[in-house]
Design brief:
The structure holds two protein chains of two kinds. Chain A folds into two domains: 229 residues, Rossmann fold (3-Layer(aba) Sandwich); 69 residues, Alpha-Beta Plaits. Chain A is 31% helix and 29% strand. Chain A is built from ten helices and 14 strands. Chain B has twelve helices and no strands.
Amino acid sequence: MDQEPAVRTEALTRVFEPKKKKEGSTVRALESVDLRIEQGELFGILGPNGAGKTTLLKILSTLLLPTSGKAYVAGLDVETQFNAVRQRINMVSGGEISGYGLLTVKENLWMFSQFYGIKSKVALQRIDDMLGEFGLLDKKDAKVRTLSTGQRQKMNVIRGFVTDPDIIFLDEPTLGLDVNASRVIRTYILDWLKDHPKKTVVLTTHYMAEADELCDRIAIIDNGRILACDSPERLKKMVRMNTTLSMDVTRLKDTAVFKTFPGVESFTFTEDGEKGLTKLRFVMRDESGVSDIVSAVLGQGSRIESLQKTEPTLEDVFIKMVGKGLE
Amino acid sequence: MTDGWVIKNLRAIKGRAYPRVIGAIREPSWVFFEVVLPLFTVAAFAYVYQFMDAREELIGYVVLGGAMTAFWLNVLWSMAAQFYWEKETGNLQLYMIAPTSRMSILAGMALGGMLSTTVNAASTLVIGAFIFNIAFDVVDPLMLIAIFLATMVALYGMGMMFASLYMLFGREAHHLSNLLTDPVYLASGFYFPVKFLGAAVAAGASVIPITLGLDALRQLFFTAGAEDAFLSLEAELALLVGLCALFMVLAHYSLRYMEYLGKATGRLTLRWQ
């Protein structure tokens, strides 16, 4: 018999109506989303701002009702069985300022654990253990308002995991954090899943590298629609059939011309002001167009500093699907 | 063996009461707002009564009313408007996804607020009594405890109901709390016997539990209080117990409805909507 998926949605749609007509138009945040996330998966949802990632997570975490369609978490309907769903889940958002600044880190975490009915002794032991794993043990008696952004977000992540949920929803958990704090959080998530193979993590992120490093599967979402859903490797294979070309050139006068260049599927560029270079990246149907691109660059009086054919990244997949990169 | 529903909800109540109680200890500046400021208003009324050579117990009523303002302010700003702040900080969504009764979260807020405010109110009462040389004459301590407890439960039950009604409010929560501050001081007779407003106004104001509570406390603290009473102690106790039940039931249903409405409209969490 098939095991019950951790999350299942069927034609899930969410529409936001403005309170007053003059305040704007209807927003279709989710449009007929079908998803199946298996138990034990680390599932990523990747999309630009306003794509519908947070809306999806809020429906799954029982904070928002769907306009139409169905969503099941641990086999339970989020609309009608929300109390039972809540016993199985937790949620952490990036940039959260939850809790009370005048409480200590330990007190704050204990307080939230009490809403899950965990015995104080058990909760305090778990909190101590997790503070150690996150390198926050020396801050356990510090007031929350004295914590740095990274320390605070680590505390938030502990809050989510301390209740030992079956399914945890992480909404951009490393948003705005430095490399070290992000690494600690990512390592913890991976270790937690290794130690608890039946548990599930659903993660939204802006960061391609994070999604690539962490996720078993990724759904790319834009304008409320799932554009692709597969493992990072398979997603990359989809663009591997194309040729990915990277080129560093001295500053170009006109980059717009490459967007509609024959044979180019997608094109992005960044300016390196310090070195005075323009970094071009092309995903092309085949290699036949390379010489035309080179001619066009040279034709603008620009010099090619480097040129290489590269392996596609998740970003290439994203650009191909969404038509633009993540800023 | 797993803990039962009651134990889990008691833990939730304790958890939510904790920051209220500890906050009162860690933020001594609140003492100024909740103990010292009411004394200024008390002093203003007390000096007017002294200047008029009014009955001594009227100054006692003012001190008692001044002490009880702490509870009304606590209910308006730290219960009713609290979910507005909680939404701003992201706590509300965490309360909502927690597998506990929302009423336990509110009860924790109420209990914590009640405990910390009782200390402040008692301080105002003692300091006021000392400054204005008030003599209390408590003849029935058991009734005093019963009335005080019934007033608190009914008042904070009302606060719980307001909290759920305010849940989806934005900044209008402030305006409503402001609107309910001074008119209630007048209608509930914080600084004078409510009987003097007439039976109709006193009866209407009795929907606010502090009206009946204050009227009963005046009777219990001062021998002349019975002459100024709106209703008998027994009637007031019975009405307060009724209000306890009424507000708890209303809080439960309004909370359930507002949660549903918040989930349907997206106003539990989405600040831009």
